[in-house]
Amino acid sequence: MIKILFSFLFAVVFFLFLAIFGIAMLVRSFLKTKPNKIRIKEDLQILKKKVKDQLLIDLSPWENNELELLSLEQINKKIQRSNAGTFGQGIISSIYHEPLIAYAYKKYGGSKHNALLFAKSSEHEYVYRITSKGTFITMDGKELGELRENGVIYNPENRMIGRINKNQNELLLPIMVKGREIASLINPKLNKNDTVPRALDLVSKSVTDEEEAIFVALAAFELAYNNEQDNSFY
């Protein structure tokens, strides 16, 4: 009788252990694919540290007349995959190899559009929360807008403030800011000019600070994250 009772208790304890272990694994998997606000904040600090650690010198100032110097080449570009997710980082440089935009991102599991990207220029910091519903962008801690799959950024009042005319089969990808074309981003996948790897063409000669900030938000997202993905956001 005692042996039977002992066996029964052992079976119950073992079953509870398996149940708790299974629930723990489900919760862990859920947190990987559905990170909460606390997890996002923690991951953002990790990404900021990655950006800081890879910068050996200060980022070069970004001047209006230097937009055309942005290069498709990147410095210290790397991608690491682990159980914690996929991390990517690098520095977008000028054609003279000056560091202009440093970035780091983390891809979560689950949806093909589920990631966190941090990008920093000499003047602004951008945070992109990439989801299947849209990419939510903040600049210097303030909400800039939502980038949707049609390539348009809408501000908090749902007004269009920027757009990239994304077409995987086109060499030039025009970027509009507040109804005005600022420049065309050269599609890295179609660019054949290895001697002068410029990222932009047809650059406007007059760009305001506000236009530049929105333009950089779109260009950084495309060069640092979207162009590297098998499944483009657009």
Strands side by side in the biggest sheet? 1-2-3-4-5-6-7-8-9-10-11-12
Kindly give the count of domains.
Answer: 2
Shape: globular
Described by strand count, sense and barrel closure, the largest sheet is:
12 strands, antiparallel
**Distance between termini?**
68 Å
Stretches with pLDDT under 50, minimum 5 residues? 10-14, 17-32
Number of H- or I-type helical stretches: 3
State the helical fraction: 25-40%
Radius of gyration: 22 Å
User: Mean pLDDT, rounded to whole units?
Assistant: 82
- Structural class, by secondary structure, is alpha+beta
Number of strands: 12
- Per DSSP, what share of the residues sits in E-state strands of 2 or more residues? 25-35%
N-to-C SSE string, H for helix and E for strand: HHEEEEEEEEEEEEH
Report on the structure:
By secondary structure, the chain is α+β, with helices and mostly antiparallel strands. The protein has 2 domains: 1-33; 36-228, no CATH class. Helix content is 28%, strand content 33%. The protein is built from 3 helices and 12 strands; from the N terminus they run H-H-E-E-E-E-E-E-E-E-E-E-E-E-H. It has helices at residues 2-33, 37-54, 209-224, and strands at 70-82, 85-94, 99-107, 115-120, 125-130, 135-139, 142-147, 152-154, 160-164, 172-177, 180-186, 200-201. Strands 1-2-3-4-5-6-7-8-9-10-11-12 form a 12-stranded antiparallel beta sheet, sandwiched between helices. The longest helix has 32 residues, at 2-33. The chain is globular, with a radius of gyration of 22 Å. Mean pLDDT is 82; it is low at 10-14 and 17-32.
